[in-house]
Specification:
The complex is a heterodimer of chains A (162) and B (719).
Chain A lengths: L1 E8 L2 E8 L4 H8 L18 E4 L2 E4 L12 E3 L12 H8 L9 H14 L5 H8 L9 H15 L8
Helix pairs in contact in A: 2-5, 3-4
Chain B lengths: L16 H6 L4 E6 L5 H9 L11 E5 L5 E5 L8 H13 L6 E5 L16 H28 L6 E4 L2 E4 L6 E3 H5 L3 E6 L23 H6 L14 E5 L8 E6 L1 H4 L5 E5 L2 E6 L2 H9 L2 E5 L10 H7 L4 E7 L2 H7 L2 E9 L11 E7 L2 E6 L4 H12 L6 E3 L15 H13 L3 E4 L2 H7 L6 E9 L5 E9 L15 E6 L24 H18 L4 H7 L4 H14 L12 E8 L2 E12 L4 E12 L6 H20 L5 E2 L2 E2 L17 E6 L18 H13 L5 E2 L3 H13 L1
Parallel strand pairs in B: 1-8, 3-4, 9-19, 15-29, 17-18, 21-22, 25-28
Antiparallel strand pairs in B: 1-2, 2-3, 5-6, 6-7, 9-12, 10-13, 11-12, 14-22, 15-20, 16-17, 16-19, 20-21, 23-24, 24-25, 26-27
Classes of the chains: A alpha+beta (162), B alpha+beta (719).
């Protein structure tokens, strides 16, 4: 049954007439054309489809779109502001924290929600937050370094060289 | 929101190969053919490719604006040649790196290529590209000599400018020289690339040029390509390999608005303009199957494989095995087992096919775009010339995207429906249809004399093939036999209950695990430190040097095993790339859990084009390799694949991450060799040897799951 669902997507209001039981991932990728959010496993195990809903990391492949009505959704496309990349994006580039790049949007969004709730994470906090995001290329060490650096930059501590 | 109004994402290559070769845009085109590239031609023949009437190993175009485009049939799947190939080109041509664009994996524009695998891009394609760049530079110097009226011998090049050495203000840019020209050169050069000491770009770290697209969500993968009118297809998957369709009821699925059901032979699909609606419709199809006749499972498979093993081939031998036995003070007779392992790229196999006006365009996630074109054309009733494959970024391959069943499905469905069709496998589809790394067996009989010298080595590998099978130690009496291979069903179509194929470092993961475990077993018996034992049994100075480099970095100190420290060591030669890996692990003896603490991996890959890229590949190999060493195993029973998602199939995660230090040894004496695979092949042995050193438990089967480690610990206590 189609219903009208309104939410805020990357800072702008969206109104859709869709079946509210359909998963957010497919609405984002198909109706809304935001292809940065990736399909990986379809059952919430891999984290490639992670987006932030009201600042919390959620698996968009497991999130019926009706559940985000009235909420704020952030995808990888929404992190860049006025042509400036988010510190996490900058740090992922600087640390070469990716290879094939397919898990990268989900990694960055998960890290984004971590830093929002925990701006000074210990290394163990980062490992715990990213535990259920899978990277097959093995960029793990560099991803952790990138999140550490982004945290430092966002704290205003400037670039900390490891 | 910049993307919401777009309903099409199509990569931008619009120039056809024919137009391109006609040089409609002007400029200087250099085509290179290596007459002696026998291996490339052999590969081409083996893949059934006819090539083009005028085929080239590489070409590049110097545009009238001074920019340069390099063309390669290879694809980018994370291995980083999107960086290293332009570095090679720019260095040889003397242009700035940012003046070079690469077109990759477009069969209409790029020279024929057998595929991106085997760590071959730098070893095989690099020299052709560099020769093309060197030839282009020579043409530019020639043109400049005419234009500037300066003898060519006095001219030098730098940053896209040709200048008079004696009067540097007398100069011309490459753009000025190429403007208004239509020069096409076909050359068969002796490769005469710059010496490593003359490199200005290669050999220095460079960060990824695709990083920005990948951190902003803009990078296009196959599933992101969209064309008007396209349908998304979901494919009905049988419950088991060997199961046959008995009855099919699609009536409920057909009631879904806008759905189209296709039943063509064994192919059953639900198609819709929305991918999730197609999946929901597929779920309403009722199908009954005759069960698979297979009685194999992940436990009885090894006996079965040995029973049906094809005849072995001797791949190396020397001395006399009987003499070796006689000289042995102690002999060792061991069997090593490897389980089936999945590729599990996070991007599942995905392809979009559009047929329009008698031509087809294919956007696949594939490591083999040219082979795919030949495979798809007959299905569509088209000549291969009318099929164009355009390669988006590939979200991980590891050998698994050399095979492309999803592309065949998409092509058939596009033909049947008359609409563009995307097939994106679900994760269970991906596990079910994967061409797994084959289960394999290695049997080794070896012996040492009273002084700890290896005097006997009788090695037989089943189903992993001969890569890295032959040892490199100084052993007087030895034989290596390989029965079956990692591809082509292992040489016997009844051997494996499902498809197998190349998996990052094909065959070598199995062979190195067995060889380097056996070496450590002998070292332990000789009560020698594993590093000293290897040094004493090696003549290869290059390997000995690398062992010393790794030991220094790691802080290896001599101790007989098991020392309780949890130190492990493995070394190998992978097609000319030498790798030494040392690791320290923690072992929880109560649970059997292994925690890798740190890894040092030293690699000698000859001349290194991009040290940063090489280090990243080494790190990735170490991390990925922890999976097949410790947790990854495909469980199956009677044709049914029991692991269909990441809940039971355990990839390495952040909690398992050790500190990894990659050491790329400077070696300008040897030509560049590959770096995408070698380091992963040490991971089974280095972990097995570290577990033994921690506990005295020797593991003869990978992966070393907690249960297997607990069983081995109990056995170690009993003995």
């Amino acid at each position: 049954m189609n219903q009208t669902i309104r939410f805020t997507l990357n800072g702008k209001p969206v109104s859709l007439a869709v079946d509210g039981e359909r998963m957010l991932l497919w609405i984002l990728r198909t109706e809304l054309g935001l292809i940065g959010t990736k399909f990986g496993c379809g059952e919430g195990y891999c984290g490639a489809c992670t987006v932030a809903v009201d600042g919390q990391a959620v698996r968009s492949c497991q999130t019926p779109v009706k559940t985000v009505a009235g909420k704020t959704v952030l995808t990888i496309e929404g992190l860049e502001k006025n042509g400036r990349l988010h510190p996490l994006q900058e740090a992922f580039m600087k640390h070469d924290a990716l290879q094939c790049g397919y898990c990268t949007p989900g990694m960055i969004l998960t890290a984004y929600t971590l830093l929002r709730s925990n701006p000074r994470p210990r290394t163990q906090d980062i490992l715990d937050a990213l535990e259920n995001n899978l990277c097959r290329c093995g960029a793990h060490n560099r991803i952790v370094e990138a999140v550490q650096e982004a945290a430092a930059v966002m704290q205003g501590a400037g670039s900390h060289e490891k | 929101m910049k993307n919401d109004e777009r309903d099409e994402y199509i990569p931008e290559n619009t120039l056809s190969r024919r137009d391109f070769l006609k040089l409609t845009g002007g400029g200087i085109l250099i085509c290179v053919t290596f007459g002696e590239a026998a291996l490339l031609q052999e590969g081409q023949r083996r893949m059934g490719g006819q090539g083009y009437p005028e085929d080239f190993n590489a070409y590049l175009l110097v545009h009238p604006d001074g920019r340069v485009t390099g063309y390669t049939g290879k694809i980018e799947m994370g291995e980083g040649i999107i960086n290293s190939l332009p570095m090679e080109l720019a260095d040889e041509l003397d242009v700035r790196l940012d003046a070079v664009d690469m077109v990759m994996g477009d069969t209409e524009l790029c020279p024929w290529d057998m595929g991106t695998f085997g760590s071959l891009a730098t070893r095989m394609f690099g020299p052709a590209l560099r020769a093309a760049a060197a030839a282009a530079r020579a043409v530019l110097v020639e043109l400049a000599s005419e234009k500037l009226k300066v003898p060519a011998a006095r001219l030098a090049t730098r940053d896209g400018v040709v200048f008079d050495r004696d009067h540097p203000s007398v100069k011309a840019t490459y753009g000025e020289l190429a403007a208004g020209k239509k020069i096409e050169r076909h050359i068969t050069p002796k490769p005469s690339p710059k010496k490593a000491s003359e490199w200005t770009i290669m050999g220095k770290p460079v960060f990824r040029r695709d990083a920005r697209a990948k951190v902003t969500g803009g990078a296009l993968f196959a599933g992101d390509v969209r064309v008007p009118g396209m349908l998304y297809a979901k494919i009905l998957r049988p419950p088991a390999h060997g199961a046959t369709l008995k009855s099919l009821d699609t009536s409920a699925a057909e009631k879904v608005a806008g759905v189209r059901i296709v039943h063509d032979g064994e192919l059953v699909a639900a198609l819709h303009e929305l991918p999730d609606v197609a999946a929901a419709a597929l779920g309403k199809i009722k199908a009954e199957y005759e069960p698979s006749p297979s009685t194999l499972d992940d436990k009885n498979i090894f006996d079965h494989l040995l029973k049906v093993a094809p005849q072995g081939q001797v791949v190396a031998h020397g001395g006399d095995l009987e003499a070796g036995k006689a000289a042995s003070a102690a002999t060792f007779d061991e069997t090593y087992l490897n389980s089936y392992v999945a590729h599990s790229p996070i991007e599942t196999h995905t392809t979009l096919v559009r047929i329009e006006g008698g031509k087809a365009t294919v956007w696949p996630s594939s490591q083999t775009p040219f082979r795919l074109k030949e495979e798809i054309a007959p299905l569509l009733g088209l000549s291969a010339a009318n099929v164009r494959v355009i390669s988006p970024f590939v979200g991980g391959g590891f050998g698994g995207k050399s095979a492309g069943g999803q592309s065949v499905q998409a092509a058939r469905l596009a033909k049947i429906t008359g609409r563009p069709v995307q097939v994106a496998w679900t994760r269970p589809d991906e596990f079910f249809n994967d061409t797994f790394r084959p289960a394999a067996i290695v049997k080794i009989k070896s012996g040492i004399d009273a002084a700890g010298k290896i005097v006997l080595w009788d090695y037989a590998v089943y189903y992993a093939g001969d890569r890295s099978a032959a040892h490199f130690y100084d052993i007087p009496n030895h034989r290596t036999v390989a029965a079956g291979e990692w591809g082509l069903g292992g040489g016997n179509s009844h051997a494996h209950p499902f498809a197998v194929g190349p998996w990052r470092g094909p065959g070598s993961n199995t062979n190195v695990y067995a060889r380097e475990s056996q070496i450590d077993i002998m070292a332990a018996k000789a009560e020698m430190d594993p590093l000293e034992f290897r040094m004493a049994n090696l003549n290869d100075e290059r390997m000995k040097r690398l062992l010393r480099v790794a030991a220094d970095k790691f802080g290896w100190t001599a101790a007989a095993t098991p020392s309780g420290r949890g130190f492990g060591l493995s070394c190998t030669d992978y097609n000319g790339t030498y790798v030494v890996t040392m690791a320290e692990v923690g072992l929880d003896k109560a649970t059997g859990a292994v925690q890798p603490k740190r890894i040092v991996c030293a690699q000698d890959m000859g001349q290194c084009v991009n040290p940063e890229g090489a280090a990243i590949q080494v790190e990735g190999c170490c991390m990925m390799g922890l999976g097949y060493a410790l947790s990854e195993e495909v469980h199956f029973r009677n044709g049914e694949i029991l692991d269909l998602n990441f809940d039971t199939y355990e990839l390495p995660r952040f909690s398992r991450m050790p500190r990894i230090e990659a050491v790329i040894v400077r070696d300008d004496e040897h030509p560049p060799s590959g770096g995408g695979e070698p380091a992963i092949t040490n991971m089974g042995a280095v972990m097995a040897n570290a577990v033994f050193d921690a506990s005295g438990a020797r593991l003869f089967q990978l992966p070393m799951t907690r249960e297997r480690i607990k069983t081995a610990l109990e056995a170690a206590v009993r003995t």
